[in-house]
Design goal:
Its main location: membrane. Belongs to the major facilitator superfamily. Sugar transporter (TC 2.A.1.1) family. Keywords: Membrane, Sugar transport, Transmembrane, Transmembrane helix, Transport. This is Major facilitator superfamily (MFS) profile domain-containing protein. GO terms for molecular function: sugar transmembrane transporter activity. With about 475 residues, the protein is mainly alpha-helical. It has two domains: about 270 residues, MFS general substrate transporter like domains (Growth Hormone, Chain: A, Up-down Bundle), CATH 1.20.1250; about 210 residues, Growth Hormone, Chain: A (Up-down Bundle), CATH 1.20.1250.20. About 80% of the residues lie in helices and about 0% in strands. It has 21 helices and no strands. Helix 7 runs antiparallel to helix 16 and helix 17 crosses helix 20. The longest helix has about 50 residues.
Amino acid sequence: MGIEEYKDDVESGESGNGIGELREPFIQQLGRHKCGRDDRRIENKGSIAMVLLSTFVAVCGSFSFGTCVGYSAPTQAAIRADLKLSLAEYSMFGSLVTIGAMLGAITSGRIADFMGRKGAMRMSSGFCITGWLAIFFSKGSFSLDLGRFFTGYGIGIISYVVPVYIAEIAPKNLRGGLATANQLMIVIGSSVSFLIGSIVTWRTLALSGIMPLISLLIGLCFIPESPRWLAKVGREKDFQVALGRLRGKDTDISEEAAEILDYIGSLESLPKAKFLDLFQSKHVRSVVIGVGIMVCQQFVGINGIGFYAAETFVAAGLSSSNIGTIGYACIQIPITLLGAILMDKSGRRPLVMVSASGTFLGCFITGIAFLLKGQNLLLEWVPMLAVAGVLIYIAAFSIGMGSVPWVIMSEIFPINVKGIAGSLVVLVTWLGAWIVSYTYNFLMSWNAPGTLFFYGGCSLVTIVFVAKFVPETKGKTLEEIQASINS
C-alpha cells in the first residue's frame, strides 16, 4: 500500500484530505500560464443547478463525517453506564475512529481511482452504515469498537473523496465557495450530533447517523460522475456527457474539455515522485512546514477536548453537561463561517496566530478552573470558568486552526511531490488525532490542570512556529510561494 496513490488526484488540483486542499484552482493556474488568457466562461442556470445539486449530495457525506466525530462527546456517560465500560475501554472506543479514518484516508486514493468518485462514496457509506448498526446493536465493547472502527474507515474515505469530487465538478468561479461547504457540513454534522445526543439515547443517536448516508446513496443516483475521473480512465464519451450535464446543454464545453484533457496529459508526463524525494534540500522546508503545522493543529488538543467535552464539563462540577454541549454545538457553525470569510481577507498567518492565541486562552481558563477545584477554592466559579474556557477554545479553533493548516499544506508543496507529501501529512495528522483522543481521559484523570496547560503550551508553540517558519500564501501563485519558501 503505497502513498503515491494520491498523486494523480491531488496534483490535478483536486484536493486531498481536507477542505484546504481545494482552495487552489490548479487547472486555472495551468490554463493561465500555458495559454496566457483569463479563460472566462458563462454558466447558465441549468449548469449551476446541477453543480449545486451534486455538491449538496456529496456533502451529505461530510455531514455524516461530522456526526461520527461528534458522537462520542454526548454519549460517554450513558455508554459507560449501560455497557459497564472502564475508562480505558471507552477511550479505546472514542479513539478507534481516528485509526479507522487513518486507514481509510490511506486507501481512499486507490479506491477512488479504481471505483470512481461515486463508487468510493457508495463504498464509504456502506462501511459507515455497517458501523452505526454495529454500535446500535452493541452488547459489549467488541461490537462497539468494531462499529466505531468501521465508521472511522468510512469517514476516512469520505474525507478524501468528497473534497476531490467537489473540486472536479465545480467551475472555477465557484470552486472556493463550494469547497467551504465541505468543512461547514462537517461542523454542522458535529453540532447536530451534540444537540441530538443531549436529548436522545446513545443507541438512537447511532441510528440517526444512518440518515445522511441514506440521503447520499439516493442522491448519487441522480448526479453525474466526475468528468475528470472519466477522462483519466479513458471514458471520453462519458466524460463529454458528464461535463455537459454539469455545464448545461446550451453551454459550449469544447474549450474546457480540451483543457482538462491537455492537463491530464501533462500530468502523465511528469516523473513519478518517490517518498525519499521529500527529503531533498529543495523540499525539506516545505515538508517541515506542512508536517509541523498539522502536528500543531492536533496537539493543541482538539480531538481530546472535542471528543469528551461533555465529561469535561461534568468533571468541572457542572450538574448537567447539556448546557455546555449545546453551547459547544451552536458556536461552531457561525465561527467556522466567519473563518472562511476571513481566510482570504486577513491572510493565513495572522488567522492561525490569532486562533492559536484563542486556544491558549481557552485552555488556560479551563486549566485554572480545574486548578481551583483541586484546591477547593471558589468552587461556585469553577463550572462557569470551565464552560467559558471550552467555548472560547472551540470558537478560537473553529476560526482558524481547524481549516487554515489544510489550506497552507495544499499550497506549499510543488506539484510533482504534492501527492506523496499530502499522504505523509494525512498520516501524521490522523496519528496525532489518535494519540490525543486516546490519552486525553487518562491525562485528565491524572492531572487535569497540567493536561490543559500542556495543550495551552502547544498553542504558544504554534504561534512561534507559524511566525518563524510559515510563509504568507494569500494572493500568491504557487510559483511565488515556492520562491518564498526556497529563498
